[in-house]
Specification:
Helix content: 40-55%
Strand order of the largest sheet: 2-1-3-4-5
Largest sheet: 5 strands, parallel
Strand content: 15-25%
Number of helices: 6
Structural class: alpha/beta
Length: 115
């Protein structure tokens, strides 16, 4: 499974998750940061990525167009890259389950007590 990190999260997450998701990418590293959300959605679909974003628009696109790609929606507001890393690592089993589940397209991660 490989993740495609959206522009609203740090490109450093690719390096931080090389142990869990080694084929992951960030839109900046791929030169996709100027694409609109629909074009990015299509790229992720064609290249078998799970999109990781804080953007609610991807949830709406998923409702309209279905999946793939699947979406890991980070509903955490302003936070640090360390916070995002901790949240994803704490939920890696749920993320992997999403990838294997043919009946689900979105996993929403919420953290109420980030420090």
């Amino acid at each position: 499974m490989k993740l495609l990190f959206d522009q609203n999260v740090s490109p450093d997450l690719v390096r931080r998750f090389v142990d869990l998701f080694p084929a992951s990418e960030h839109v900046f590293r791929l030169g996709l940061d100027s694409l609109d959300d629909i074009a990015l959605w299509q790229y992720a679909r064609e290249n078998e990525f799970v999109i990781v974003s804080k953007d609610a628009d991807f949830s709406e696109i998923s409702m309209l167009h279905g999946y793939p790609p699947k979406l890991l929606w980070l509903r955490i507001g302003n936070c640090t890259t360390d916070d995002i890393e901790r949240l994803i690592r704490a939920n890696v089993s749920y993320i992997r389950a999403l990838a294997e589940d043919d009946t689900r397209g979105i996993l929403s991660l919420v953290a109420n007590n980030l420090i």
